Amino acid sequence: MLALAWQTIRSRLGGFAGAFIAILCGTALVAACGILMESGLRAGVPTQRYAAAAVVVGGAQSVRPPGADALSTEQVGEQPAVPAALAGRIAAVPGVRAAVAEQSFPAQVVTRDGRVLAERESLGHNWDAAVLAPFALRGGEAPRTDGEVVLDADLARRADVGIGGQVRITTRSGPVAFKVSGVVDGTSRQSAVFFTPQRAAELAGRPGQAHAIGVLAEPGTEPEALAERVRAVAGGAEVTTGVERSSIEFLDVSQSRVLLLAVAGSFGGFALLVAVFVVASTLALTINQRRREFALLRAVAATPRQIRKLIGTETTLVALVAGVLGSVLGLAVASGLRDAFAAIGVIPADFGLAISPLPLLAAVLLGLGAARLAAWAASRRPSSIRPVEALGEAAVERRELGRGRLLTGWGLVLAGVGGALVPLFLRGDIAAASSTMATLVVVIGLAVVGPQVTGLVVRFLVPVLARGWRISGYLAGANAHANARRVAAAVTPLMLAVAFALATFYGPTAATAAAQQQAARSTTADYVLTAPGGVTPEVAAAAGRVPGVAAATPVVRTSVITATPLGDSVEVQRTPAQGVAGDRAGAALELGVDAGRLTDLTGDTVALSRAEADWLEKKIGDDVEFYFGDGVPAKLRLVATYTHDLAFGDFVLPVALAREHIGGRLDDSVLVRRQPGADAGTVAAALAALPYPGLVLAPASATTAPEGGERQAQFYLNLVAAGVIVGYLAISVANTLVLTTAQRGREFALLRLVGTTRRQVTRMMRLEALATVGIAVVLGTLVALIPLTLLNFGLRGTPVPAGPLSVYFGIIAGAAALGMVAIGVATSVALRARPIDAIGLRE
Predict the structure, then answer these.
(1) Are residues 728 and 819 in the same domain?
(2) Is 291's pLDDT higher than 80?
(3) Mean per-residue pLDDT, 547-576
């Protein structure tokens, strides 16, 4: 059987090329996702501030509520703190030379011309933590008084200040002048400003807390062994060594690792599903071209098992070669995805990849399994026909579909349509996700019943083609009508590409547009004040004292983590939240309060969206339990509920409470409302002249929804993932179209021998290509349009999809160009042979 399979592959290289390419690309995608997942577990960026520390101890980087399993955890959204007193206990651990608590807080240098040096993140630290890098003094001396600082060399150069000079630094207050007592060699990712330990603790604003504790080991002590001993006294704190130390140093590294795991896992699963779909379609097409061969084998007593075994062996040989090459190609794909994710800001630019043989081997095995599954599905029909019917079955394409296939296909279509109705009842991310999933389910259902749907559409096209283009039109229509399965095989991947591209792009734009529209309608302020790195809390008070200002409301963007029991499990998720000044928020924001009072939002209280309150079964006066963004448990009293949840998220906190649980203790913005009758130009000029460097004054219409940044990053992330999948589908489309056209060499030869000219055959194929592309575009558009219409109606109150129309035309143009070129090139190649030679070629 192996020899026969190998001989068949060698004699039909063109037929197996399509399956080879499909498996190659699918394996490359799966391998790339595996590499990204492994990188999420083992990779990161090199630590910088803790390079000399064998062990770094920080706050817990994830939340696992009581009763939750190991998988029900959520990454913190804000930098967690660790008790500074823990350093004393760690210092007593055997093998520890020293344990140093490090403070870390925003500290930006203001130049002489009033410009804030914000090109790179700039953080302040206590000088005794400089030993952890280690930072070596290039010149000068350590800060001895609260009025002295040490700058890293790069920051001193950019600020144009030397040792002994004066520099202004803004932290959680306005600019303060300091004397530069020394300069140290700096890091490449962040700028460093060192204060005396007492001054750093004051400026950090976290009494008794520290960013991290760096542990210096005695000579000869193994970091892993020391980490185990430290872990025994660290309580619930995070204890890290090696590359893991950077997850304590940089919050974005820790978040990126979790994000890579989630994205690569979901993207890899979807890529594998698409790969099975594409490989099955390609194999079915290849096997369908060999109907005469299998008919002959059945007629000479080959058993169904032997036919299936032959097809399985052929597929295994092709899949092994394609899988090995595809897994190697996956290295380049993973590197490209990493660069794309870094370019859109999803992961840090210096985030490295972890490479090992495991993802490559897993990709080969998954690709082989997908190919065998596809081969089993494709081999059922040719192996099950009776020998007496074999030759007749090969002569004419089977028109009707089985009852099971029809029930499955139309059942999936109905299920997809039902899923598309979800946005009419639910809002938020779940509505957008259900809309996209509904599109895919409908596409898969239409692919299952493709020949029936295509046959119905073609039946209406035949007279149109015949009237418009006479001979060529008649031939094109007759061919499409008689070979509905072949047309369906060409239409399906193109339809999937169009529908998937439309759903992936226009689905997120609907959610974003809905949030932005509600934010614009709900913001009653006239101006918004922002600054690079954050706004000091003093700005809101200063803006409120400007003549002509009715109210100045500080806004803090953060997140909270909720734990909701669902049966025997606990659902843990992080959701956007914001902090506002309850007594002033009403003058600048309209939350749509429907119960309680926003003015009561002070102290340990919270306001919830109506949807969240109903989900948690909470009413005014009840206690609401959750976790702040830094992982600290919260139990707050509910004082108000509101309906504008798309604009403000599900949780609104008192601004002072929200500040306590974010790393920088800074506001994100200040919303300012003008008094009625006050001169707009005068008020704006006074606000712009506030003595806080870096302040940016903009119209309040520039305000975005709380999750706007995350939603934008997610949108670009979806575009990258969709681009890769659509690229794979484009290869599949070209692959399928070339195969379906190339197998018709004898048909073209017969047409030319009975008097049809080469030009007429070419025109016939162009019309068939036009019909194929047209059917795919119309079906793909309708399949995506129905869920998108319902999604926009549910979120925005209008059925018109949000987003530029040019993207739609671009997708359609790309699909049309792909289909026309693939069929045109294959037709041109097939027509090169002389008819008398081509008519003798076997099918």
Answers:
(1) yes
(2) no
(3) 88
CA angle, residues 771, 774, 779, in degrees to nearest 5 = 125
DSSP 802: P
Determine the Cα–Cα distance for residues 677 and 681; give it in Å rounded to an integer.
12
In whole angstroms, give the CA distance from residue 488 to residue 494.
10
Prior bond of 799 cis (ω within 30°): no
Domain boundary among 702, 733, 762: 702
Q: Which residues contact 550 (CB under 8 A, 6 or more apart)?
A: 587, 673, 674, 675, 676
* Residues 273 and 314 reside in one and the same domain: yes
- Among 794, 838, 808, 111, smallest CA distance to 423 is for 794
Range of the domain at 836: 451-521+704-842
Same domain, 779 and 721: yes
Is position 237 within any domain?
yes
3-state SS assignment for residue 402: coil
pLDDT band at 394 (very low <50, low <70, confident <90, very high): very low
Structure tokens at 132: 């952890």
Tally of domains within the chain:
4
The string of pLDDT tens digits covering residues 648-676 is 888 999 999 999 999 888 999 999 999 99
Contacts of 749 (CB under 8 A, 6+ apart): 833, 835, 836, 837, 838, 839, 841
* Side-chain-facing half-sphere of 198: CA atoms under 13 Å: 6
- Same domain membership, residue 625 and residue 731: no
| Residues paired with residue 638 on neighbouring β-strands, in sequence order | 606
Bridge partner residues of 168 (DSSP): 110, 177
Query: Of the residues 655, 680, 702, which one is the last residue of a structural domain?
Result: 702
Tell me if 152 sits within 8 A of 187, measured CB to CB.
yes
The answer on 644 and 741 residing in a single domain is no
User: Which residues does 141 contact at the CB level (< 8 Å), separation at least 6?
Assistant: 181, 182
